[in-house]
Amino acid sequence: MPASHPPYPPEFRREAVRLVQTSGKSRREIADDLGISTESLRQWVKQAEFDAGVRHDGLTTLEREELRQVLCGLTSLPPERGTANQILALKRGHWQIENRMHRIKDVSLGEDASLIHIGQGPTVLALLRETAINVPHRAGIRQIAARLRKHRHYPERAVALVLESPMTHA
Q1: Is 77 helix (H, G, I), strand (E, B) or coil?
Q2: Which domains does the chain have, with CATH numbers?
Q3: Which of 19, 50, 80, 99 is 20 to 30 A from 116, comparing alpha carbons?
Q4: % of the chain with per-residue pLDDT over 70
């Protein structure tokens, strides 16, 4: 058998899996009869079990396709709504913001190290972290992490910033 073979049609795979499940023959016998490797047949049976909900230690075919689309950056956006370069710029912009915010939340505010995981605690802490970031940002401060470090030493300035914040005037 060649090292590389074009993908087998889905109908062929389904029939091979059905034979394993109903014929009473061993996987090796079925694989030999069909001219495929036992490893391919084993993988097809395993995938069929994920899809049927028999196994839960892997991804279903639909989950695999969704993951492939996310990893490849596939979109249902029609071409007239955005070119590939525009979509790439949007994606990079999202991750740039995400990475910047994560650094502040995790490094400066210790979000990933939090030991609070039950009840409303995580939600309340997330809101407090967002407030700690957004109040200085709305006041025109752009170096949030540096300002948070400064406020640790001068908490009265942090209180004054909250009381003078444009958010309190909204």
Answers
A1: coil
A2: 10-72 (1.10.10.10), 84-169 (no CATH)
A3: 99
A4: 87
CA distances (Å), origin 14, targets 23, 28, 36, 83, 111: 14, 17, 14, 38, 46
CA-CA distance, 73 to 24, in Å (whole number)? 43
- The model's confidence at residue 69, banded by pLDDT at 50, 70 and 90, is confident
- The alpha carbon torsion through 151, 116, 100, 149 (nearest 10 deg) reads 20
| Cα 38 to Cα 44: distance, rounded to the nearest angstrom | 10
CA–CA separation, 148 and 136 (whole Å)? 9
The rounded distance, in Å, linking the Cα atoms of 70 and 79 is 18
Residue 46 structure tokens = 């395993």
How far, in Å, CA of 82 to CA of 91, rounded?
12
pLDDT tens profile 126-162: 888 888 888 888 888 888 888 888 888 888 988 888 8
What gap in Å lies between CA 24 and CA 20, rounded to an integer? 7
